[in-house]
Write a structure and sequence with these properties.
Blueprint (H helix, E strand, L loop, with lengths): L9 E5 L5 H11 L6 H10 L4 E6 L2 E11 L2 E9 L8 H15 L4 E7 L3 H9 L3 E6 L9 E7 L2
Parallel strand pairs: 4-5
Antiparallel strand pairs: 1-2, 2-3, 3-4, 5-7, 6-7
């Protein structure tokens, strides 16, 4: 079986409101403290060009939201449906976002990840992200985050 990066049925597109229901499902299955509908609507309204979805046969299977602040890019959120994980979709979304942030002039990209989320930490390290700091109680009491950073070439 080919990776999804090579599959013609996979497409990366801009978020539209028709994608919201599926994104909320992915968000809820992916995170202990998921974003609610209002956050996605507000982000898409303010930064529509920085909100991408992965579509497999026109069904939403993942998303990424990112932004640029001064010289830094920020990965706001990224998630892939559980049944589509470990198939290259998250990597494809992150690669697209990193390319766009570089085009926008970002010199580095920052993100936060819960210190217990080993699969996400490994994923980010494959892309060259390094742990820069620990953010105590970032996700709630006794739920610390790593601040991770990637220098863009």
């Amino acid at each position: 079986m080919c990776s999804y990066e090579e599959a013609p049925e996979l497409k990366i597109d801009f978020f539209r409101l028709i994608h919201l229901k599926k994104i909320l499902e992915i968000e809820n299955e992916s995170f202990n403290n998921p974003y609610d509908e209002a956050i996605f609507k507000a982000f898409s309204s303010k930064h529509p060009e920085n909100f991408l979805v992965a579509l497999f046969n026109k069904d939403v299977v993942g998303y990424i939201m990112f932004d640029k602040l001064y010289n830094s890019g920020i990965i706001v959120s990224i998630a892939v449906s559980q049944r589509f994980r470990r198939k290259g979709i998250g990597g494809l979304l992150l690669t697209k976002a990193l390319g766009k942030l570089k085009e926008l002039g970002a010199k580095e990209v920052l993100l936060q990840v819960e210190v217990t989320n080993n699969s996400a930490i490994s994923f980010y390290k494959k892309f060259g992200f390094n742990v820069e700091a620990i953010l105590p109680n970032y996700y709630g009491i006794k739920r610390d985050a790593y601040l991770m950073k990637l220098k863009l070439p």
